[in-house]
Every structure is written in structure tokens, then in C-alpha cells.
Amino acid sequence: MMPKALGGQIVMEKTPRYFVTVDTPARVHAMSQDIKLIVVVRDPVTRAISDYTQIISKTPEIPPFERLAFKNHTTGQIDSLWSPLWIGLYAQHMERWLAWFPRAQIHLVSGERLISDPAGELGKVQDFLGLQRIVTDKHFYFNKTKGFPCLKKPEGSSKPHCLGKTKGRTHVSIDPEVVQKLRDFYRPHNQRFYQMAGQDFGWQ
Ligand SMILES: Nc1ncnc2c1ncn2[C@@H]1O[C@H](COP(=O)(O)OS(=O)(=O)O)[C@@H](OP(=O)(O)O)[C@H]1O
């Protein structure tokens, strides 16, 4: 379903689910072997809480995060198959992609640095895509109220553009003990992911 393009044009498509869907690497490989892949990753614990915040905003009747995160609350056994937690097992997902694509064809973007240093992170994306570095520091300003960077002037518009209301929303508050258990759970997975990535994302 990718649109046709002229020589010199780059076609882009974004579907977060691709990174974690088991059959996708093989299907993408069958479509194009020299495709460039970009993945935005953030601290998996914050990611899970953000995910849950999104789910509960649509289905308020679901059980609390603390209940869904554990298979057995007494033994503290984490339910790693619960989607918000399973998605954060980046090393497992990355492994499936690396069975089909060389590491150099996959570029990892830090979700945290995308907020703290958008121009730096986008500079690396432009290099990865073989583009001239057109987007730089001068294209962004930091909106303190939102806690997010905004574009000073998007193409074709004279007004600044900030991300929508749901970006940078307040997360559901989670029992700190549960957060600590999740940090302990993810630590070895994160370490394995840093090794595959060749970079330390600095998650706690
Ligand atoms: N450009 C950019 N830079 C940094 N962070 C970003 C960006 N776009 C989305 N986000 C954050 O990703 C979280 C999920 O947002 P999404 O737009 O993907 O989906 S949704 O809002 O949950 O439907 C959500 O995280 P939280 O706000 O922490 O819940 C978004 O704020």
C-alpha cells in the first residue's frame, strides 16, 4: 500500500505497531530489502504508564494498572504478556528485526532526547536518511507550559506548531513500589537492548 514515488523522493510510513508485530519484519523485507527503519524508544516503564493512561482515557472501567501489571501480586510476578509491558521488551522485538535487517539499516531515536534536544535527535535522523541537515536548532522553541518543543514555523504556515493536547499529558499516578518492581524487571532487558543498540539510553 506504499504510494509510488519519483526518483529522489522518499516515501515514509509510520506505524508504531510494526516494531512489535511478529510477522512484520519478514513482510517488510519481502517488500524492500534496503528500506531504512526508524524506531523511537523511551524508558519502558514510563512508556507502559503512558500507554495505560491512553487506554484508561478510552475505557475508564478497566482494572487499575497495579492489578494488570502482575500475574500474581503476592509473589510479585510481573505479567510480561500484558501489552503495555510486553511492548517495552525492546530487545526481544529488536532481535526479530535483526534476523532480517542489518543493524546499520535500523536507526534508534531516544524519545527522551526528542523532547530535550529535538534538533540533535533529528540531525541524526537526517544523517541516517542521507539528507542534508536542514532541520536544526533554529526550527524549535521550548514551550515550558507544555514541557515539549514546538516548531517555530512549519512549512506552508506562518504560525508555530505544537503537538496536540494528548502529548505530554499527565500520567496516571502509580504506586512507587510497583514502579520500582517494574524498573527491576526491565533492567536486564534494557541492558541487552543497549548492547544490541550500541548505545546506553540511560533508563533507570
Ligand atoms: N514528537 C514527540 N516527541 C516526544 N514524545 C512524543 C512525540 N509525539 C508523541 N510523543 C509521546 O508519545 C506518547 C504516545 O503518543 P502517541 O501520539 O504515539 O499516541 S497516543 O497519544 O497515545 O495516541 C505520548 O507520551 P505521554 O504524553 O508521556 O503519555 C506522547 O507525548
Structure description:
This protein is α+β, with helices and mostly antiparallel strands and 204 residues long. It has a single domain, classed as P-loop containing nucleotide triphosphate hydrolases (Rossmann fold). Helix content is 39%, strand content 11%. The protein has 8 helices and 6 strands. The protein has a two-stranded parallel sheet with strand order 1-4. The protein is globular and about 60 Å long. It starts with 23 loop residues before the first helix and ends in a 7-residue tail after the last helix. The model has no long low-confidence stretch (mean pLDDT 94). Residues 50, 53-54, 111, 114-115, 163, 166-169 line the site of 3'-phosphate-adenosine-5'-phosphate sulfate (PPS).
Please describe the structure with a list of short key phrases separated by commas or semicolons:
6 strands, transferase, alpha+beta, Rossmann fold, globular, binds 3'-phosphate-adenosine-5'-phosphate sulfate
Secondary structure category: alpha+beta
Number of helices: 8
Give the biggest sheet. 2 strands, parallel
Separation of termini?
A: 39 Å
**CATH homologous superfamily designation:** P-loop containing nucleotide triphosphate hydrolases
Strand content: 5-15%
Tally of individual domains:
1
**String of helices and strands:** HEHHEEHHEHHEEH
Unreliable stretches covering 5 or more consecutive residues: none
Give the % helix.
25-40%
Strand order of the largest sheet: 1-4
What's the CATH class, please?
Alpha Beta
Rg (CA only): 19 Å
Report the count of strand segments.
Answer: 6
In the CATH classification, which architecture applies?
A: 3-Layer(aba) Sandwich
Oligomer: single chain
Dominant shape: globular
CATH topology: Rossmann fold
Q: Taking all residues together, what is the mean pLDDT?
A: 94
Question: What molecules are bound to this protein?
Answer: 3'-phosphate-adenosine-5'-phosphate sulfate
Keywords: Disulfide bond, Glycoprotein, Transferase
EC number: 2.8.2.-
Pfam family, one: Sulfotransfer_1
Binding site for 3'-phosphoadenylyl sulfate: 42, 50, 167-171
